[in-house]
């Protein structure tokens, strides 16, 4: 496995002239890898010839320096995990390379980046779109892997690929969860034992919301049910609990797929989670691609 830090080291990564069929995969991460990240790496390994993982804690997508400074980092662990998943190349760029002195160009995620997570974290999705566009330009992947765990990020990237005509296929991978339902996140390691014990309430809330919809209830009722579950914990401060259209993140209409999304604070840690409800014969049912520690699990 090669480890590089300069964009220049990525030039001519693959000799597409002599092997036009060669498939390059990119898995962008912010490091502190867990089994959720590893599921993306394994999918990339299985479906591509050359697997590139980037590790970049992108300052432009953090709203506060305190949050950025507290973000977990584990370079040695990340390299070992990447190696175990068969990654070919790890790209670890320094901040000043990704944002050269005087840089002034950003990608705007537009209205999609201004709602829900974007409303709680102004500028977050512009930061995400800018860094991902830059990684696409440097690595020139054929396919890039993102987690359904960050559903709005996925929608922003898909929109950007269409709008800016990137020649990259976007693959969404199911959310990997701990056995008690908590979606794996690098931020989970910042939770106190008491907060960790309460954190599965996010998934519980989503399942309650899904239950309301499955029984034919309205999206407002589902949102109320989710809020009720979250408010049941004295350690949880609810940010939002909504039912939205998974492509636009606008309030969900009557038909089509539906995304239940929650965000909450436990102490200084902010967690998000979501559940995609597919349409099956007109009925909305939880997405069966959800996975528990990498294996398929129903609800
Ligand atoms: P991050 O390092 O948090 O920026 O995440 C890097 C990628 O891993 C993103 O595409 C995330 O959506 C994805 N990811 C994070 N947590 C999970 C999870 N629990 N299951 C699946 N994918 C995840």
Give the helix/strand layout.
Blueprint (H helix, E strand, L loop, with lengths): L1 E3 L19 E6 L5 H13 L2 E6 L9 H6 L4 H10 L4 E3 L3 H4 L18 H4 L3 H16 L3 E5 L3 H13 L5 E5 L2 E2 L15 H6 L2 H14 L4 H13 L4 E9 L13 E9 L2 E12 L2 E4 L4 E2 L2 E2 L3
Parallel strand pairs: 1-4, 2-3, 2-5, 3-4, 5-6, 7-12
Antiparallel strand pairs: 8-9, 9-10, 10-11, 12-13
Helix pairs in contact: 6-7, 9-10
The structure holds adenosine monophosphate.
Describe the protein:
The protein is of the alpha/beta class and 299 residues long. The protein contains ten helices and 13 strands. A six-stranded parallel sheet has the order 1-4-3-2-5-6, sandwiched between helices. Helix 1 (35-47) links the parallel strand 2 (24-29) and strand 3 (50-55). Helix 6 (124-139) packs across helix 7 (151-163). The longest helix has 16 residues, at 124-139. It starts with a strand and ends with a strand. Bound molecules: adenosine monophosphate (AMP).
Main traits of this protein?
single chain, 299 residues, alpha/beta, six-stranded parallel β-sheet, four-stranded antiparallel β-sheet, 33% helix, 23% strand, disordered C terminus, binds adenosine monophosphate
Q: Helices and strands: which structural class?
A: alpha/beta
Largest sheet: 6 strands, parallel
Q: Name the strands of the widest sheet in spatial order.
A: 1-4-3-2-5-6
Unreliable residue stretches = 294-299
Strand content: 15-25%
Order of helices and strands: EEHEHHEHHHEHEEHHHEEEEEE
Hetero groups in this structure are: adenosine monophosphate
What is the rounded Rg?
19 Å
Shape: globular
- In DSSP terms (H or I, runs of 4 or more residues), the helix count works out at 10
Total E-strand runs = 13
What distance separates the N and C termini? 38 Å
